[in-house]
Amino acid sequence: MRLFPYEIQEISVQNVNWNLDMLNVQSFWTKTKGNGKVVAIVDTGIDHNHPEFTGRIIGAKNFTATNDKDTDGHGTHVAGTIAGKTMGIAPECRIMPLKVFGDAKVTQNIHDAFRYILDWNKTAKEDDKVVAVNCSFGGGYDGFMHYLIRRLINSGVAVIVAAGNAGDGRPDTIEYASYPSFLYEVITTGAVEQSGQPAKYTNTHDGIDIAAPGTNIYSSWPGGIFKTLNGTSMATPHVTGLYTLIVSSFRQREGRLPTVAEAEDILFNHIQETDINPAFVGRGIADATFDTTRWPLNKVQIGAYYNRSGAEEVRDLAKSKGFDRAFIIKY
Question: Domains of the chain, with CATH numbers?
């Protein structure tokens, strides 16, 4: 496994938070900003002293034979997009930095990090459980890693991964040799630019699920500073952050954590309409606009009446408010 090549942009960006505006994440913040939900970042570690993360690091672990510093910067940048105080999608969630890059046994380190998350969740209180893991890396297929990913998802942890940066700008050629992005079970993220058009470097194949901003992304960097990077590694944490907001809001509403299937269902309703070829963006570009019609409901009892006319009145009111699946149950 390897980090995808990424480009550091030494240019000024007039609106450094353009990506937050594109996703309209401020709309979701009226409901929650993450509320302490825990996201694992399997990467190069982070700058633990960066002011963007003060007081919100939990369960950090270094799986490499090197020290726990982020000497690359990749992990710190990813963490800032997910949870940075001033540029994060979910600025009040907590992050679990798991350092796996830094020595020659990266694949083993990733295995160990995934097992660490599984073990953590077995004993953690509900609100301390990891709800998602961000994987901005790729490489050759690994059967045991695939097994661990399935275990994570079945246990309630979403695995959100980068599509890869080997694209040629064409939807009719596929860049598939990058795992875990090509796996069915994960949420695979492509990159778009500020214009809303696909980034030319983003991999294309039928395993892409969703897209998010990936070019000229301003985020945290080791040493308490900030840099602007390009790559699907930069797009992926946008989706991880949005997924975390969804989990947080679901927990507030339902009193429990959602299954991955439930949260994915809601995530894939948070899509901007686009005519871009799905090979680039999957179902579309992520959209954090909070809208109750985007929340699939299993069953919600909103009233009880002894006569049919009263039940019909409440049903019609519910439909007028956007609950188009409202119906009457006869007890």
Answer: 2-294 (3.40.50.200), 297-331 (no CATH)
